[in-house]
Amino acid sequence: MAEVRLVDVSVRDGNQCLWSATGLRTPQILQAAPLLERVGFHALDYISSTFMGIAARVHHEDPWERIRLTRAAAPTTHLQFIGTGFRFISWEESSPELMQLVYDRLVMAGITRFIVLDPMHDVEAMRRSAAMVKRAGAPEVMGALTFTLSPVHDDAFYAGIARVIAKDANFDRAYVKDPTGLLDPERARTLLPTVKAALAGKPLELHSHCTIGLSPVTYAKAPELGVDVLHVAPGPLSNGSSLPDAQRVVANLRELGHVVDVDDRALGLVADYFFALAAAEGLPVGVPQDYDAAYLRHQVAGGTLTTTRRGLREVGLEDRFDEVIEEVPRVRAELGYPIMVTPFPQMVCTQALYNVLGAERYEHVPDEVVRYVLARFGRPTSPVDPEVKEKILSRPRARELEAEPPPPTVAELRRRFPGVGDEELILRATMPGNQVDAMRAAGPARRHYNPHLRPVLGLLDELSRRPALSELAVERPGMRLRLYRRADDDPEEAAHAV
Question: N or C: which end of the chain has fewer CB within 10 A?
């Protein structure tokens, strides 16, 4: 029997999968942080560059401030950042100097654990990123083995990457990342022990989504197959396309004789808080998924399927949806079996759509697919089909994109944005300036959030919009509340008073 530790994914991955990455704001995270700290998680899957961009763009909140405040609220639990190493916020490539500055500032802000993920499994690129992260002073660096199904991605393929991680002192551990939920118990019985042996004593973690209902059963088997840490989600942020429910995983593991040292009461309070938040904000609750064998073939996650169908519907071509999905596996094979995790599902589905609707296949090719073939996202795991590669790279647009200048250095960015600090410089280098301006104009984020007050605050906000209403009385046994608007109140000031 094994002692198993847990990583919580609520703030980043659960939020991304079920709440479109926008469901949690700084005050909501700060309210949860002390509870998450008490549970005893090894780490919180906390943030990525995409989430930092969303904080600024959607919520007008400073993501650097968010990290510092969360670190203060949860001082002993690892806060985790996941990144590819070649970009930050924008999908445009960043210079190595800028990435080093990013890692330096993330460590200074309070990030203590980094996941290094290369979307093409380019191990040399992973090693370069890990060295940069360690140079920044990060205590813990983990290499990602992103799982998928293809003729290329067999157990020997993953063992080869694990051996590189084992020999590199900049990596402290590794994890099998299963973003599409394809790892079933049968494959786990061969893959996980093979990877564990190749790691030569470094810890192994497992991160597997519930997309077609396989991961809860795989998790029950994982500790006996060499997995030391499992990634889970609490309450409403579990299941669906997210990860297994934390409380259910703990109960299952203990039933099987394993030791899981967490504070059960604190874990229950975390789940209760997120359920209350979901109810107050009208956010969906994750539910267990049915098994769908077709998913093993196309491997397109639900969000991308929904987006593709909606796009076809908007142009009156929803009846072509099945043709597009049938084209997806063919395009993926021709492009060298990219793992179907952002941004590659979007690229593959878009190309499949163009192939179905065009007069001939690859008549139209989006810029991102051209950049992919030009290896701007890394070296493809398997070679791109030669005929397809020729079709794409012979286009005038390919030559234009190939001639794009290299990403700017930090020195060039400082000349472009004089007088700004490092944190703001990073945001301005990777985001539209008006979005950064709006974030700064909004000022500091609120620090407190109580989901149980949402109905009352909503009522008061609605009343403030009705200038004809001058008085409101609420009565119940032992309590009488009277709100009123003075006759000389300015309507805008009255709104704040109410």
Answer: N
Cβ contact 231:205 at 8 Å: yes
Domains and CATH numbers, the chain: 5-281 (3.20.20.70), 295-402 (1.10.472.90), 454-497 (no CATH)
Q: List 45's β-bridge partners, or say none.
A: 80
Please give the helix or strand (H or E) that residue 208 lies within, else none: strand 204-208
Q: What angle do CA 236, 241, 243 make, to 5 degrees?
A: 65
Give the C-alpha separation, 467 to 437, whole Å: 33
- Residues 368 and 346: their CA atoms lie apart, in Å, by 10
DSSP string, 41-66: -SEEEEEEHHHHHHHHHTT---HHHH
Whether pLDDT at 155 is above 80: yes
The pLDDT tens digits for 260-275 are: 999 999 999 999 999 9
Over 90: is that where the pLDDT of 153 sits?
Answer: yes
**Contact between residue 83 and residue 48 where contact means Cβ atoms under 8 Å apart:** yes
- Which secondary-structure segment (H or E) carries 273? helix 264-281
